[in-house]
Amino acid sequence: MRSIDLPVNATGHAAPVTHVALRPDGQRLASCSYDGTALVWDIQNPARPRLLHRLRHRRLVNACAWNPASPDVLATCSADKTVAVWRIPDDDSDQPDLVSVLARHTDDVNSVDWMPDGERLICVSEDGRATLWNALTGAFLSEVGSHTAHCMAVSVGPDGLVATAGEDGMVAVRRPGSDSDTAVRHYDSSIEGCAWSHSGKVLAVARDDGRVDLLTGRLELLRTLEVSASAARTVGWSEDDTSLVIGAYDGALHFFTADGRRTHRVQDARVWPRSVSVARGLIAAGSFWNGPHLYAPDGAEIAAPAVPNHGPNALAAHDGQLFIGCDSGTVFAVDLDGTSDETGAPRAVRALAVADGPVLSLAVRDGALYAATYSGQVIGLLDGRRIVSEQLGAPLPSLCFHGDALVAGTYNGELVALDPRTLAVTARRSAHGGSVKSLTSLPSGFLSAATDHTVAAGDLHRRETLWEHGNLVNAVAVLGGRVAASASRDHTVKVGRITGDGPGALRAEAVQTLLGPDESVKCVGLLGDPDAPVVLAGSYDFGLYAWRVDWDATARTLSCGHLLTAFDQGLSCMASLDGDNVAVAGWDGRIVVVTRGPDGEPRVRRDWRIEDLAARSDRHEEALAV
């Protein structure tokens, strides 16, 4: 397993903040990040958080938890499949001590929580299992339960009841070592968050439909909070259990009383409400910038990160220009046909200040640039104007054109058609049973890839499944309107020929499954001749792979693709420049252009870093023309 190797950001994280945990005394805050680190902050003066310690894992850090009995002990869990237990010095004059490493899970560890004794720790993983450990000695104790899909969250009540929640829609409550204290509740969709109240009398469950259920210890419904049109992700309770803070995928923090009354709402495009934490009158939240956010109980901002991260999420190409959409809301416009410096990096770069928060997808047509955001809006730069759509109810990970319409895919599984000239919504429909992760145009329709494991083809109103994967589909690409390829969390790429001349008639033929690396495949691209295409795929294992497809030799697909190059973090996105060139971006900020050589083999032709583009760019705070 390769380790993340990003330049250290002296002021905080070098990638988005995935999780926050306030120590119960309100004196320390731990934050976790995609950059493979957990940071410990001194927040005795909450208006001026001071960085004390930097803890490292090999992969992104998903969550952390402070020990309830020993305030100097912190557990962190990671996509490197381990949990680390640290003893944290009270100041920066000494180094943290690694107490133990818990390594038994076969997939990412998503969440951890301590038993009340401060010795035992519960860990839950994407392998579906919940495990119990003596965290101080590193001894594995037992299995606590299992889910049929990824286990996403764990919360331990003050009396030792363990609640787990998963993508299988199951919420389970168990007492380790007892068969009698067990309750199970099933939902129709994924559950990503759960949190016991401090009294242990109420369990809050964050639902994928935007609601939060308040349940008894036997999982009987007390009340449902109508939070958002987008998925609810995380819940934090006030210390007296009279109020809750809920983070949702509409990009907002929602403040409720325990009896169901909404009191405040905080919308800040920098905030990543994947995680919230509450202690001593402070509320912490995750961020797409370089550190956590701190708020008062009334939602007033106390402290916020100062430095954006330019992690690339989206690429689009048009007329010799490459557009790179970033976590910062900046879109870098790179002139690929212009001159380059001695490193090969383009000299002509513009930084377009498109949004205040992450740009998740891009589309370009006729000199107009469209960016879809985590906050659920589409922003257009056209004809010297900047136009913004209404809030579409969820983050927008995908965009494409279909005829005269601009189509956005949402986290809620919807396809939304917009007028490109005004960004007014002209139609919308529920098309997938999960987030529409990727869209790409065809001559007579468009393809969509989603977390419901499917790749579909058609128009807005009529869609047919082309094929299915064994897990969520991250991306789909097309070559010459005749060949499509998709990348999946099931570690494979599928490629097939597309036939048919219109929606309802599109079909897939000669579909092959290409065995990828032993981790999720995030992005995909196609090069060359549709009769003998080259497939590119980028993985969370940091590798960029290539396959030459022979439609008549299916057995060749059993070999893993050729490794073209390795990045320092997972790969994020690809975009076709033309039939023989594909741009590829990684979350380490590296951008490469892969070309098909005279012998038909792909090779890396250009290679540069986004921090170099940012340093040389002409910034346009109000960028109105592409």
Automatic annotation (TrEMBL):
PROSITE patterns: WD_REPEATS_1, WD_REPEATS_2, WD_REPEATS_REGION. Residues 161-238 form the Anaphase-promoting complex subunit 4-like WD40 domain. InterPro entries: Apc4-like_WD40_dom (IPR024977), PQQ_b-propeller_rpt (IPR018391), WD40/YVTN_repeat-like_dom_sf (IPR015943), WD40_repeat_CS (IPR019775), WD40_repeat_dom_sf (IPR036322), WD40_rpt (IPR001680). The keyword Repeat applies. Keywords: Repeat, WD repeat. Coiled coil: none annotated. WD repeats lie at residues 10-51, 54-88, 102-143. This is WD40 repeat domain-containing protein. It comes from Streptomyces eurythermus.
